[in-house]
Design brief:
Keywords: Coiled coil, Nucleus. By secondary structure, the chain is mostly helical. The chain is built from 4 helices and no strands. Among the domains are: 37 residues, no CATH class; 34 residues. The chain is elongated, with a radius of gyration of 30 Å.
């Protein structure tokens, strides 16, 4: 019997957590919207995901985004290297002096 009470206590705590964080209201709203649909969608899970704002990416989308990330990282590395080289070249023509003027 004690195990049953502990289980109920955990369930009640979890239920309050879901209510407090708005999960219950969000799910209720989506389910009511689904219930009120004249023509039920073929895939109820996709309907719920779509109305909860879940993003569904295909593996092709994921691969394309991963490739874009890799390309941008390479471009960033090249630009950082170019920036470093240009700063070094600039230092040759404008060496810094302590008084703020140019050195002769």
């Amino acid at each position: 019997m004690a195990h049953y009470r502990a289980s109920d206590s955990k369930r009640e705590h979890f239920r309050r957590y879901l209510e407090k964080t708005g999960v219950v209201d969000s799910l209720t709203s989506v389910f009511v919207s689904l219930y009120e649909q004249q023509e039920k969608p073929a895939n109820a899970l996709e309907y719920v995901k779509g109305h909860l704002g879940a993003v569904t990416l295909t593996s092709a989308d994921t691969e394309a985004l991963q490739q874009e990330v890799n390309d941008l990282r390479q471009r960033c590395a090249c630009l950082e290297e170019e920036n470093k080289d240009l700063k070094a070249r600039l230092q040759q023509y404008e060496p810094a002096s302590e008084d703020g003027g140019t050195a002769n």
